[in-house]
Write a structure and sequence with these properties.
The chain is mainly α. The protein has 10 helices and no strands. Helix 3 (30-37) packs antiparallel against helix 4 (40-48), helix 6 (75-83) packs parallel to helix 8 (110-118) and helix 7 runs antiparallel to helix 8 (110-118). GO terms for molecular function: ubiquitin-protein transferase activity.
Length: 152
């Protein structure tokens, strides 16, 4: 899926898009929507635009774009976010203390778990506990995290 890069670029050039905060009532930005839909190209465009200031925005639940991409299993989007210098909320926790690794593990996305665990900033995520005391490994479905921690 490529999204609609041309439409995205046009929105970024429109003064009202940026001037009105670019968030919906739930706190979602264009980056949240692109990440949750698997639109890596649109994520790249948003991150490359100096006029898009909501890179670190969180939804009402505290989710970053990385949480959403990880929860949906969009490995390419996760890679785009992890490698872009403007995206600095890699280890962010949501309203219940969960990070992107929790989200990927709970949904059983092995490849995303492996990608996250391979990223220098994310290695600390495996030992992080949410507010209920659960690590990503505790929530993992189908051995998602074990594959990332013990590759064959």
């Amino acid at each position: 899926m490529q999204g609609h890069p041309g439409a995205c670029q046009a929105l970024l050039e429109h003064p009202r898009f940026i001037g009105e905060g670019a968030k919906d009532k739930e706190g979602w930005t264009a980056l949240h929507w692109a990440a949750s839909g698997g639109y890596a190209t649109v994520c790249r465009i948003l991150l490359a635009s100096a006029s898009f200031a909501e890179v670190a925005a969180r939804t009402g639940r505290g989710w970053t774009a990385l949480h959403l991409a990880a929860a949906h299993g969009f490995e390419e989007v996760c890679h785009v976010l992890l490698t872009h210098p403007r995206f600095k909320t890699v280890t962010a926790q949501d309203c219940v203390g969960r990070n992107a690794l929790h989200a990927a593990a709970e949904a059983g996305h092995r490849d995303v778990c492996k990608l996250l665990m391979g990223h220098e900033s994310c290695r600390v995520l495996a030992s992080c506990k949410d507010y209920g005391g659960s690590t990503a490994s505790d929530l993992a479905v189908g051995g998602a995290l074990e594959v990332a921690l013990h590759p064959h």
